[in-house]
Amino acid sequence: MSILVKNNVHWVGQRDWEVRDFHGTEYRTLRGTSYNSYLIREEKTVLIDTVDHRFSREFIRDLAAEVDLSTIDAVVINHAEEDHAGALGELLALIPGTPVYCTNNALDSIVGHHHHPEWNFQPVCTGDKLDIGNGKQLVFIETPMLHWPDSMMTYLTGDAVLFSNDAFGQHYCDEHLFNDEVDQGELMDQCLRYYANILTPFSPLVTAKINEVLGFGLPVDMVATAHGVVWRDNPTQIILKYLEWANNYQEDRITLFYDSMSNNTRMMADAIAQGIHEADPLVTVKIFNVARHDKNEILSNVFRSKGVLVGSSTMNNVMMPKVAGMLEEITGLRFRGKKGSAFGSFGWAGGAVDRIQTRLMDAGFDIALSLKAKWRPDARTVELCREHGRQIARQWALRRLEPARSLATHGAANDPAVSKVPAASKAPAATCAGESMLCTVCQWVYDPALGEPDQLVAPGTPWDAVPETFLCPKCGIGKAVFEPVLGKAAA
Ligand code: FEO
């Protein structure tokens, strides 16, 4: 089976409706995928990429029905991963000696996967051309680390088709091949999911490479990806979208994700989200339990968010493992320009929140005050969580919000614990006299009633009388990182 792409270019790929995992089990392909291979028949016959190794037999069968395999003059391998070069072995067994055009880096990865150093490799660099007759050429463009060192794109002059391989693709399976033929919402969801989960770490390279390609001044009539649709209707839309996504992308969105042993941390998440929505009704708020939700959807939401709140119960004085796994992924994805904060319930020790906060900081997030609650949140603590959400909403607002409502409207007017300045605001020290102060780095609390005798701060010393040389006895950081405590339950 083939599909006409343009003039003498046909799609000869394979569709995979069933696949649900990629990269082991790290990427959930909820809408399947396709492995796009293209056959160009000018004076020379050239195959662009093959398909996943699991479809080798069907691929060779269908390709042989389309073209006499012995007439194939060249194979271009834009990327060595097995979903594109997987059928190369079976193909070259039938047409040995056929030249394989690829990058120098691909020599290592193709041989590393197939163990055939004797294949007729023709390594190319950016700007190299292959004349295919009828006045047309293939121009090669190296795209290292988008997303492997061996990646490249191939441009067909005359028809102005850019064979972009993984870039601009999406794991999306549909009987229709072209972007204007499919559900636009589904398509863009999968494009964003693909970018967020695979390409985010390489965003600076995405920007540089796209600008380099645009600098060539080549017309682009179609972008023929290796997964999903061929962009024929306004193909520059996906290129511009990539430039947008590569530029520290964020929307007016806050994502909360957590794991919860006894539902207590979930109660906190719900209350914090309520507070965010109350203070900023226009911000999008998404909540996920990492143990129950598709992690790629969570990561896509993190990608879209201006800030994330990460919650965990404390288990064995550390965070719950699925939260730790998510934070490891987030660290690897190297998000930039986002805010973060930790929360969680604990029983006799609250190590999880401290560790999450540190991990978020290590991952490059701009950290806001964290929140702990001991045991199950009671009504007052739930209200403190809501207030925390309101404060987060105000701190992270992308536009001017209405002034905070009186605490009386939140039913907590008689609770001195919540009659505080916003937790992460930089309140003048004089307003904090007599109040407990929280170290926002390690969560240690300065209690004026106790002072800090080890630093010669006598019991009864209010915060504004504590010397500026004071250092947190737990983490060693100075007064600047201390904020008023919301209440004992939020210590
Ligand atoms: Fe990098 Fe579609 O494989």
TrEMBL record:
Highest taxon listed in the record's lineage: Bacteria
Domain Flavodoxin-like: start-end pairs: 254-393
Any GO MF annotation of the entry: iron ion binding
UniProt KW keywords: Cytoplasm, Electron transport, Flavoprotein, FMN, Iron, Metal-binding, Oxidoreductase, Transport
The keyword Protein biosynthesis is assigned to this record: no
Domain Rubredoxin-like stretches: 434-485
Database matches in PROSITE patterns: FLAVODOXIN_LIKE (PS50902), RUBREDOXIN_LIKE (PS50903)
SUPFAM superfamilies documented for this protein: Flavoproteins, Metallo-hydrolase/oxidoreductase, Rubredoxin-like
Classification via SMART domains: Lactamase_B
Record HAMAP family: NorV
Family that this chain belongs to: In the N-terminal section; belongs to the zinc metallo-hydrolase group 3 family.
Protein name from the UniProt record: Anaerobic nitric oxide reductase flavorubredoxin
Organism: Paraburkholderia dinghuensis
